Amino acid sequence: MLAFPSPAHAELERGPEVRQAAPASLVPCGFFRYSVRESQFAAYNHCGTTTVRVHVDVRGGGSTNDYHLCVSPSRTQLPGAGPNYLNAYYIGGAGCRSGDRTPHTSH
User: Fold this and answer.
1) d(Cα 62, Cα 29) in Å, to the nearest integer?
2) DSSP state, residue 62
C-alpha cells in the first residue's frame, strides 16, 4: 500500500530547511519528503507522460547504496524511511519498465 500526503495530516519538505502544508494537489514534480503524524516518507513525483529512470541517492555507504529506478507518471513511494534518502533525480531512460531497479552506474 502506498501512502501519499493528504491535506489534513501531511507536511512536505523540499530540501533540508523548508516545510509547508502539502495538499495532495500541490505535490511538486521530482523528489520530496513528507510526514504523516510521526512517520517520515520520501517519494518521487514524475510529472511527464512516459516512464523515466531516476537516480535514487541513499544516505550512507557512498554511491554503493544508490540505485536507479524506473518510475511511471505520478508519485512513486520510495521504500523505507524518508530520512534514508538524500535525493532522487531524472537521468533519462524514457520508456523503461516501471518498477525496474538497477544498481548505481555512472550516468
Assistant:
1) 25
2) G
Half-sphere exposure of 98 (CA within 13 A, CB side): 12
- Tell whether the model's pLDDT for residue 6 goes beyond 70: no
Letter for the amino acid at 11? E
19-61: pLDDT as tens digits: 344 455 577 899 999 999 999 999 999 999 999 999 999 998 7
Q: How far apart are CA 81 and CA 1, in angstroms?
A: 15
Q: What is the DSSP letter of 72?
A: -
Is-contact 82 42, C-beta < 8 A? Answer: yes
Q: Which three cell numbers stand for residue 91?
A: 537521468
Burial 65-91 (b: 16+ CB within 10 A, else e): ebbbbbbbeebbebeeebeebebbebe
